TrEMBL record:
<keyword id="KW-0411">Iron-sulfur</keyword>
<dbReference type="Pfam" id="PF17147">
    <property type="entry name" value="PFOR_II"/>
</dbReference>
<feature type="domain" description="Pyruvate flavodoxin/ferredoxin oxidoreductase pyrimidine binding">
    <location>
        <begin position="31"/>
        <end position="256"/>
    </location>
</feature>
<dbReference type="GO" id="GO:0006979">
    <property type="term" value="P:response to oxidative stress"/>
</dbReference>
<dbReference type="Pfam" id="PF01855">
    <property type="entry name" value="POR_N"/>
</dbReference>
<keyword id="KW-0408">Iron</keyword>
<dbReference type="GO" id="GO:0051539">
    <property type="term" value="F:4 iron, 4 sulfur cluster binding"/>
</dbReference>
<feature type="domain" description="Thiamine pyrophosphate enzyme TPP-binding">
    <location>
        <begin position="551"/>
        <end position="645"/>
    </location>
</feature>
<keyword id="KW-0004">4Fe-4S</keyword>
<dbReference type="InterPro" id="IPR009014">
    <property type="entry name" value="Transketo_C/PFOR_II"/>
</dbReference>
<keyword id="KW-0479">Metal-binding</keyword>
<protein>
    <submittedName>
        <fullName>Pyruvate synthase</fullName>
    </submittedName>
</protein>
<keyword id="KW-0249">Electron transport</keyword>
<dbReference type="InterPro" id="IPR033412">
    <property type="entry name" value="PFOR_II"/>
</dbReference>
<dbReference type="InterPro" id="IPR050722">
    <property type="entry name" value="Pyruvate:ferred/Flavod_OxRd"/>
</dbReference>
<feature type="domain" description="Pyruvate:ferredoxin oxidoreductase core">
    <location>
        <begin position="280"/>
        <end position="384"/>
    </location>
</feature>
<comment type="similarity">
    <text>Belongs to the pyruvate:ferredoxin/flavodoxin oxidoreductase family.</text>
</comment>
Amino acid sequence: MAIDIRKEMGPKGTVEQRIVYESGNEMAAYAAHQINYHVMGYFPISPSTEVAQFLDLMKANGQHDIVLIPADGEHGSAGVCYGASVAGGRVFNATSANGYLYMLEQMPVQSGTRFPMVMNLVCRSVSGPLDIHGDHSDLYFALNTGWPIILCRDPQAVYDMNIIALKLAEDPEVRLPVLVASDGYFTSHQKRRVHTFAHREDVLSFVGEKPPEGFVHVLDRDNPITVGPYMNEPDYINNCYQQSMAMYRAEGVYDRIRQEYAALTGRDYPLLELYRMEDAEVAVFLLNSSAEIIKDVVDQLRAKGVKAGSISPNIIRPFPAKAIAEALANVKAVTVGDRADAFGSHGGNMVLEIKAALQTYRNHSTLVVSRIYGLGGKDFYAEDGLQMFEYALDAVAKGVVEKPFDYHGHTPGDPSKAPKRVLEPMKYEELKTGLITVTPDEETGKVNVRVPPLRQLTKKPKRIAPGHGACPGCGIFSGLELFFKGIEGDMIALFHTGCAMVVTTGYPYSAHKATYIHNLFQNGAATLSGVVEMFHERKRRGELDYLGLKDDFTFVMITGDGGMDIGMGPAIGAALRNHKMIILEYDNEGYMNTGAQLSYSTPIGHRTSTSNVGKQQGGKVFHHKDTAQIMAATNIPYVFTGSEANAPDLVKKGAKAQWYAQNVGMVYGKILITCPLNWLSDDKDGATIIDQAVNSCFFPLYEVERGVTTITYNPEEKGKRVPVSDWLKTMGKTKHLSRPEYVDTLRDFEGEIERRWNMLKAKHENPYL
């Protein structure tokens, strides 16, 4: 990589600075903590998750006063941020990929009503299929949301741009929310030497001690305002015009702010980063981290006598069209690399805008080559950069661009290498054993189930092959397979995004021996609802007769890793519609797919990477969500809880769940599963921890059948109840609760467990509760 000697020699500015060695995510958090925002609404999604984690850790240690609000999903986090913004304070957020797309509805709301904030977009591939590595497909969705967008090619820029962004957002000529974009897993996780302001006071002196006094907000009782009114077309077009003018003013305001920042720090971020463009005849245009790599290639070509140069913008909204046209005025050919495709438009967004800029400023001579590269985090090497220049040099030699648009770095399909089936489909006869009998009781309306000794069920094949990549000690698959022992016949499963999904479906392989579908956290229940209704309708029309189905499928949605936070709304919707399907939640008490952040199922006081333990904070600060009771309130026919601590009970409930899902309607089940990584426990202790969770009454085993609650295992009656503190001692994430300074949190938790247990017993004793 070409070295910028100016940066390496250290800052030449007028303000005192210090050197740290951190990643892009750490520097986004570091800048935020120095600014000391009022509020951050957030939801974890890789690779941006670390930003909230670092801020929470600093919060636990008393390093800032930011109120960190864990939302139920990215749509909710965007709403939290908008609400905080209209209340006049400084607001911060970070997200990536599909999380940003889930926010997308909210983005024009915030810019259209002109309330400032700063959001970091740590760029990542947008699925499907699911890929968590870096490209710009999420960034390109942001282009039309009305937010100024500034770019960061290294961790130093992430820090600097986060400070510049707030000043830009709050400038009276702009007054818009600003997006700060960096490359996921390239910039976000690489550690580099970074120069920072040594003192928070100097940061606040630059951005302002507090938001500008003149901004309207909803907390001024003497000046009540209406935010976001219904607006007819003459007024709406005027509103959009004013917003548009503010966006174009942002270019000049940014240019002024970056010069002020350069004087302070010695680091400058002009509209365009031009490298050896003074006499360039061929050039490459790239965004963010790849633009650093291309500089090496420029130097290599210059050494061979080729007049090469590179262009990379520091801001793309507003798009610096005039500056780009001027930079390309004497260039014979330019290759524009887009790290995302604008499908069907013969190029990515950047090449289309560059072509428009050249046309606008009457440059009809520069040849433009479009190449899509680096999708899904595909590495970009100097060799790729050289090929980008070769495309431009070839156009110059021939006087024409023979292939104006193409992908770079893709592999042509080869039918002979198509994935082959590794696992044979399970036979119906293996799955329909007849060992389990389920009979409805006409008098009570309930279902009676007879389950044979578990050893007789071991002949049933496992529905998930052993070749998955779960962590040692993970309880997901032992718990799921135990539940599946109660399911007879064919099954179609939909898995939310989460650990169970990720570790079983690494393309081109799959551990699923039956049909499997994936959709994102927030929409799995709705998706499976569509599958269920299509099945029954096509069956009614006789369109599936050729398949020779022996009986109906059992449709099961598997969710976990916080999926019943972000996915709660669609799950309730599916329940109210009463589709014939099962939702099974594996509860590991965290967002484990993104690395142990708190979920709403995390109990109070428990440590996660976003509920840290320090001198100012003792783990999660609010109680866990009882999803089983929430779903029971929708009046679906069957709700249950289960665990490996009582295997026959869980198998029996699986059989009941199948009968209700095939004959009556929606079923919801919740199983507690061990997670050594989140719980900070030894993987061999999982069964003991689950058993203690049940016997402490933290996770009671019960069912709600046609509205009637029955406790299926009562540790008090068995003489096996244990103190909550005994269970907590088995996990590293809760050992701090035994310390005197956290006694109030422990008592609060114990009291809540007792309250919920007594309510459950009351419901058990009274069928009308």
